[in-house]
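Running low. Any example?
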Amino acid sequence: MSLIERAVSRLTGQPDSPPPRPAREESERRARSSAPSGSAGATSGATSGTARGAPAASATTGASVAIRLDSLRRRGFVVPDSQTSRTGEEFRVIKRPLIANAFGRGAAEVRNGRRVMVTSAFPGEGKSFCAINLALSIAAERDHQVLLVDADVARPSIPRELGFTAGAGLMNLLLEPGSRDIGELVLGTNVDKLAILPAGRRHELATELLASRTMVQVLDTLSARFPDRIIIFDSPPLLVTTESRVLATHMGQIVMVVAAGSTPRSAVNEALQTVDGAAEVVGMVLNKARAGGSGGYGLYGYGYAYGQNSQSGSRGGAPQAGAQHAGA
């Protein structure tokens, strides 16, 4: 089973820090300092001209959601401060090369390495399950933060899975460019170092909007506004819609989820061909595989490789699994 990847040099340099701001009134300063660490208001570093200044305190302190951690734990998700689980160990293995690539510590420099798209060939293979777990696992890191973007704009599932009601989000930024500060739509959570950008309003021209220059500007703003975060995009399936193929062209890394015993090899190859040349690194996760005769379903292996047209199904190790989740 082939992994189609492009390994080229990443553009060097980091976003410049914004110039020092003039002194604010004492009340505004206190409001900013009280913003939660996981919220957009607590993060700075936007490039001048790409994003406006940090949003007002009222736009961030009120934009936090509570993730239902007990429900996630019961359903086999990786939950902070929980006991060690097979699923947790799986995602520790999966996230390591992604983090290394995101911050220039991999085998090769990866342009836009902090942008990671999680996708699949068809619906129901567990891509959202993997995207959420990957985000939660990275949020457990001491030195890294994560922004989870619900880019499956036709069938958003992150709010339902995490147990909160979402409002405006990514599509609103594309439909109304410049009308809202991006920080107003990024939600802080009760998981330290995890923030979420919902899908937002549905629209029949989603593909065209994702392919627009406005989308490029939004992605550049996200990367500049949150320079310390890995940005994970839960995208639509590759063989069902065209949105994910367009989104892939803006990514540095792609994680493709494959359902064990379900996804035909021909479909895997076809899906990989749709993103050939779109991102510099492509990895694969085998989901819903029986593990050790336990009867459970979960992650079974992670295929990862570097270089053009690398032939590998489990390069970098194939960890054993135990997560009790059928995935969606």
